[in-house]
Amino acid sequence: MDVVYHASRTKGLTEIRCNSSTHGESYVYAAKDVVHSALFLSCLGGDLTCQIGCEDEISTITERYPGAFKERYLGTSGSIYLLNGKDFVEGKTGWDVEVIATTNQSVLNEIVVEDVYTYLMSFKTNGQLRILEYPNRPSFIPKDDSDLIVKCVQFTKVFGSSYLKEVEKFHPTLLDKVIKELRASSMPR
Hints:
Blueprint: E1 3-8, E2 15-16, E3 19-20, E4 26-31, H1 34-38, E5 50-55, E6 58-63, H2 68-73, E7 78-84, E8 98-101, E9 105-113, H3 116-125, E10 129-132, H4 147-159, H5 163-170, H6 175-186
Helix pairs in contact: 4-6
């Protein structure tokens, strides 16, 4: 890979520093393509608002509820940083389009994005991005969003009980199920 792409809400950076993550290590995360990177210019609600993925080699985003895509991206700005791909490795995160580096990375170039919603819609128009508006979703995302329960339990264990406020805000009907699963998972077996 010659160049990889890193999204940030912060403009004007000259270096991208390693950051700790849910994978348990400190990495610089990047994407192999600019479209997939652009999807991370807003992380509002994470998978609770929109599920990011890739289908048939096309970046895909799935709304978890009506208007989630617009809520997440409209009025958001940021930058996509081009980084030298030589230090990045594949296959460490479970996503084919995502790569990581274990050292801080110098910025080669910056794409300033003033309105992420408009920027992403241009990729949709060009056929480079698939947006599945609620209630449309791929078969691997259940209609009742029950797949979020395991993710919410994991994130609550990593980020603490304050994450439950995110669950309550975006998926209040799942909150009791997440709490029940948290209690069950913390019981000795």
